[in-house]
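Handout, section B. The chain below has 546 residues.
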Amino acid sequence: MAKYVFVTGGVTSSLGKGIIAASLAKLLQARGFSVTIQKFDPYINVDPGTLNPYEHGECYVTEDGAETDLDLGHYERFLNIHTSQANNVTTGRIYQTVINKEREGAYLGKTVQVVPHITDEIKRRMLLLGRGGEYDIVITEIGGTIGDIESLPFVEAIRQIQWELPDEDVCVIHLTLIPYLRAAKELKTKPTQHSVKMMSETGVHPDIIVCRTEEPLTNDLKRKIALFCNVKQNAVIEAMDASSIYEVPLEMLREKLDVICLNKFGITDFKEPNLDKWKAFLDKIKYPKSKITIGLIGKYIELQDAYKSILESFIHAGAMNEVKVVVQNIHSEFITPENVAEKLQNVDGMLVAPGFGERGIEGKILAIKYARENNIPFFGICLGMQMSVIEFARNVLNIKDAHSTEMNKNTPNPVVNMMEEQKKVKLMGGTMRLGSYPCEIKEGSLAEKIYRTTHISERHRHRYEFNNDYLEQFEANGMKATGFNPDTGLVEIVEVPAHPFFIGVQYHPELKSTVENPAPLFVDFIAAAKVFNEKRTAQKKEVGVV
């Protein structure tokens, strides 16, 4: 039987429950335990696949094609293991399951209620990953904050699990905020006290309180929190703001979060954690040898979480190249023929981000044209790849009305078209081409040089594809298709060999980038941007600009 850790949040959202959960899991993994993490989200959407990125950040796609919460990306990046459909559960999925069972007659004669039917289904899923013998410890993060109406069934399920399982099999961690009032120059514990009190009123009491804070917690403050929240003083954990999320595991190690959990489980025989690779990675982040600027061309740039996996992939690839990657967010909606040169003049590389819909499309096409004509390293992902195809068709093949049927259903030249199997799809949720698919890479291509193999597998999330009716034209004029799905012939990778670094991919390589295994495409893209920066700096020195 596995041990179970539940991570809840109080006072405010966005405190970093996912990072705390991932950090604890990393420490336990480093001590030799088999660990997995799951996220329970209280919203009624079945999954975040139909949510606007402004609402919920990016939609993270797993190997098995599940559209999930972005926290699963943190889990994978920290633990270097794959998650799946089972690692993310929403209220929508819970209710959908219970209602389907009711319609099938599973509850004949019963009045279906939140307790016990909804809570029983929540408990079943909470304990599911721990019943196969694969994991020693299962960490469950509960979305939202204590006191939210929609979170109550999840909290009640935790209460029942605490009651049903032996005390040494369950540990509850409550993440809360200790605000610093600058006018008074002091930290305030009252919000935490109220949060724990509200939680206790539901029948769930935390074993450990992790305190997010801008200023260090004194022993007196820890003692006060422990006294009023009824936990041991050593179970009050300081979580100071960190310059990087990758520092948090080491902070939690210093605070002994993992040891306190293991003691709660009655586990005393464990080894010292081996975090040498993690520390080496952190050193490269903290002490880079140079700096480059990457232009991120997108339309959701106001919300950092909308491109979370891309931003983290830049950090991983930057560490591999020993450079600091400065990301310059450029809103594609505001790129015009008049200002494109001004907006992009200082970038060493350009990534055109994925997305959906017509807004900001022409700006992306203008940016790609500028990168292609000025030999700036270019990397396009999903929609970014499709826009590079449209740009090439318009400006090199001279097909001025080339477009995608996503933006213009009646375009006479659909160089990007809806996938054939997608044309019959009526439901929007969970029906795209999702999850991991194989790709065969042509020998001698840039992609083969990057991956060092001709057989890869990457994750997808799209409905539209390169239109193979135009493939011969593209190849004859300098844009090569160098990666194909072996089963469907779908073009997965396009390149412009005459360009120093120009590559677009239909898949999402950022979804598989981790601290220990950075995405190869990102690593080589950053390397190309580094070379571009060095050449430009040398040219400026020659003419006396620098």
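Note. Residues 34 and 135 are 5 Å apart (CA to CA). Compare this with the example in section A.
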